[in-house]
Amino acid sequence: MRKIDIFDTTLRDGEQSAGINLNTAEKLEIAKQLERFGVDVMEAGFPAASPGDLDAVRQIASTIKHSSVTGLARSVKSDIDAAWEALKVAECPRLHVFIATSPIHMTYKLKQTPEQVVETAVESIKYAKQFFPIVQWSAEDAFRSDPAFLAHIVEQAIKAGASVINLPDTVGYATPHEYGAMFKYMKENVPNVEQVKLSSHCHNDLGMAVANTLAAIENGADQVEGTINGIGERAGNAALEEVGVALYTRKDAYNVETNLTLNEIKRTSQLVSQLTGMVIQANKAVVGKNAFAHESGIHQDGVLKEPTTYEIITPELIGETSNNLVLGKHSGRHAFHERAKEMGFLLDKEALNEAFKEFKQLADRKKEITKEDLWTILTHQQLKAEETAIYELESIQVQYGTEHIPTATVQVKIPEGTVVEDACTGAGSVEAIFNALERIVDGKVNLLDYRVSSIGKGRDALGEAVVNLTFNHTEELTGRGTAQDVLEASAKAYLNAINRSLLQKQMEELVKSSV
Ligand SMILES: CC(=O)SCCNC(=O)CCNC(=O)[C@H](O)C(C)(C)COP(=O)(O)OP(=O)(O)OC[C@H]1O[C@@H](n2cnc3c(N)ncnc32)[C@H](O)[C@@H]1OP(=O)(O)O
Ligand SMILES: CC(C)C(=O)C(=O)O
């Protein structure tokens, strides 16, 4: 199988992303991880850019042993000298030197004629070859260059000593078909092309960087360039993790191999995201938070029965521990039951169905159902199953205004099965609720403590109330209640404590009568 070299430029083109600035220690950390990931070449920086960049490239070049380290230089002697200064410590120093070849860039930016550009390119490669055993030459904006001129300058670059020729789509303008055709054209029109490796370098301005990279491979590219998470100038570069996984998953289509250790992808991606501060979009292919998440019931059911129904990549392939069946309003019973089992809840069918109903009601109101929400719902059902609720809150209504006395009206289903209603005032809404409930429950309540907190984050988080009380002079009991509204949660917590007290009494009587 044909081997494709992976050239990573996270630390050079990736760092060119607006807002990213990595220090030497951070660059070194990423470089070590790129080495573990198995990239063949890593571009560690642009040594002429700053003393800091030169130092970082030097440190990386002296540390990394299993990937070749390179640095970028303009076709300017002082840039090449700076690169040599940084890279001479490397096991096999490699330079990446470039000059633009498109009419727009030559005319307006370089202000050179095509002949002058050829001369500058050849001179710089020859100069670099005095120091570097390996010189990669890039035709910046190759895709928008005149094909015949491009073929001519590539031929001259090879004659001057370049051993890798990179043909970037610098502004992300190409379509896959067109970008592939450029490689085919070079293969057919550069007489000495077989002496070198051809390389792709794609930008993502039209969202086609990865597709273009794959098209280059199909048309003879031996090396592909890109970055982790696709970071880079403007809309970024081809995302290497996507390229690697596409080549592996569609081996049947591409029939090539790489040295990448794919199960290092997750770790590499996380590290780059964390150190650069570039957040990975949730739906990003391969490494996005949702890449292995299934939310809808039909998909979840399929994946539970057979993962390949909806997963073409296994999470393990990229070093992810498992897929994620996200429970939300589109989820179905299969996934909900499976999650309950995973969480250790052994509920009967009826309790599970009740829990599922409660879950769906909550899912309608909340963006995301958190693990804490599920614990609450499932625990509630489990307690219900074990305890047989004695007092159950039916409804609650509170009138509150800064100029009015808070009044609560509550309806509670009592142990006899009837629904009783009562109302009471209080210094605040919670006290009014507790006073009304105390009139309904048959006994003396002594409230000892009361706390409310939110479960999870966000404006739509559930409220949890905890009540400590004694009932008819029992020992202190704790009751918990959860609801979207803290007043409802408070009423539930209050009744939960009373129910626990009654249950305890029933148990004691049962034990006494059996002795
Ligand atoms: C497509 C790419 O990603 S290319 C890489 C882009 N990366 C970077 O630019 C990051 C590092 N760059 C830098 O730190 C600075 O730009 C430096 C140190 C390289 C140069 O800084 P300055 O000397 O202040 O020049 P400045 O950046 O303003 O302008 C670039 C100059 O280089 C020239 N130039 C651009 N590319 C090349 C090239 N490949 N070969 C020779 N000269 C070039 C420009 O024409 C311009 O020349 P001019 O000053 O005669 O007009
Ligand atoms: C310098 C070259 C390789 C580049 O980054 C580009 O053309 O995008």
Question: If you had to describe this structure to a student in words, what would you say it looks like?
Answer:
There is one protein chain. The protein has 3 domains: 2-276, TIM Barrel (Alpha-Beta Barrel), CATH 3.20.20.70; 293-386, no CATH class; 389-514, Double Stranded RNA Binding Domain (2-Layer Sandwich), CATH 3.30.160.270. The mean pLDDT is 93. Helix 4 (77-87) links the parallel strand 4 (68-74) and strand 5. The radius of gyration is 33 Å and the shape is elongated. Strands 2-3-4-5-6-7-8-9 form an 8-stranded parallel β-barrel, surrounded by 7 helices. A 3-stranded antiparallel β-sheet has the order 13-14-15. With 515 residues, it is of the alpha/beta class. It has helices spanning 10-14, 24-37, 51-63, 77-87, 103-110, 114-129, 147-160, 176-189, 209-218, 240-249, 251-254, 265-276, 297-305, 333-342, 349-365, 371-387, 429-440, 486-514, and strands spanning 2-3, 5-8, 41-45, 68-74, 94-100, 134-140, 164-169, 197-202, 223-226, 256-257, 293-294, 324-325, 392-399, 407-413, 419-425, 445-455, 462-471, 477-483. The termini are far apart. It has 18 helices and 18 strands. The structure holds acetyl coenzyme *A and 3-methyl-2-oxobutanoic acid.
